[in-house]
Amino acid sequence: METDREPHNQPATTRRALLTVATAAVPAAALGLGAAGPAHAEAVSADFDNGGPGRRPQPQVPDRDLRRLLGEIDERRIRATVNRLVAFGTRHTLSSQTDPNRGIGAARDWLFAQFQAVAAASGGRMSVELQSFVQPPGARNPEPVTVTNVVATLRGSVAPERIHVVSGHYDSRITDVMNFTDDAPGADDDASGVAVVLELARVFASRTVESTIVFVAFAGEEQGLFGSTYMAAQFKAAGARIAAMFSNDIVGASQAWDGTAPDPRTVRLFVEGVPTSETAAQTATRQSVGGEDDGPSRQLARFVRDVAENDATGMRIRVVWRRDRFLRGSDHIPFLQQGYPAGRLTERARTSITSTRTCASRAGRSSGTWRSSATSGTWCGWPRSTRPRSGHSRRGRPRRAASGSWRRC
């Protein structure tokens, strides 16, 4: 979804289209992206090296292992995940954390069990944890609230210190951001993104990858990017080398129900230009060489587009050269603020806010086939060297008035 301070939310795209992109982008990055540390263009360039300076990037043809992995994406599992998350009634950050059947606590426990089941096939390479912290009182949480991210980490076999993060957020909301009692199904925003992450974790668990992949379902996104802000800060404090971070936010519908034709094969990838974390010295250097279009996140987007558009995915990556949609923000923003290359994958069109918060919020209207669009995008966005080797291998959120605050949709 989109957050008021930092926006991010959207209606549905065909799960096939978006899930394919998400899968393609993440794995590709984790498989071979180099250590793209905080906003250092040089380090990032090394990660995306194509043979040396001055050489034009070449499309990355999917090899047999990648095609096999994409073929394992199961649209029935994706749909089942979305339906199950919708069945919790509401997943509002302020809803019950102890009710076994309704609320964010029930959703958290279910996701934890699902990731644990997936990790069982990893031979000990994947670990699962609940990353909890207490969020102090704020504009969207009058009282302190415990926020819990569900995290599955697949450790790399060659360069485990190089990390790729792929995420979705499992909290939901309706138009009134403080209403934590009414149903907030959030099928598209963002059960769809979480379904992508869980399915990616499943197909990667049985494979060996060179660098580490972190699969995470964030909480607190609708209230202010709470979960992602905490994780990004933890990574930064630990000196982690985050090569790429992808937020899969609102990836479940192929049409906007606004009269335009459905497009299940296109996904948007939002990336910033001038790095959010740029220092004064870096600003001076950038201005002297005219590097406004050469930031780490934009280089990451170019890489994703080069490797995700092919006959194996059938996808088109529409790169949008801005941090996020107007007055919106998703979980990639806290990573940008910490200096890490990051982008947001979302469906190709924005449905109306009314549709987004009602019908489109329910699983039945999150359009089309639920296969692997975003999935292939995320997966393909990883460099070949980081790819796995087989065998071993709402919807609805309130928006803010144009007068000032960010909206979350």
Give the rounded overall mean pLDDT. 80
Helix content: 25-40%
Computed over alpha carbons, the radius of gyration is 19 Å
Largest sheet: 8 strands, mixed
Descriptive report:
The chain is globular, with a radius of gyration of 19 Å. The protein has helices spanning 15-32, 41-47, 64-71, 75-86, 104-119, 187-205, 221-224, 226-237, 280-289, 296-308, 333-337, 353-357, 373-380; strands at 126-135, 145-154, 159-169, 211-218, 241-248, 266-270, 316-320, 342-347. It is built from 13 helices and 8 strands. Helix 1 (15-32) packs across helix 6, helix 1 (15-32) runs parallel beside helix 13 (373-380) and helix 5 (104-119) runs parallel beside helix 6 (187-205). It has 409 residues and is of the alpha/beta class.
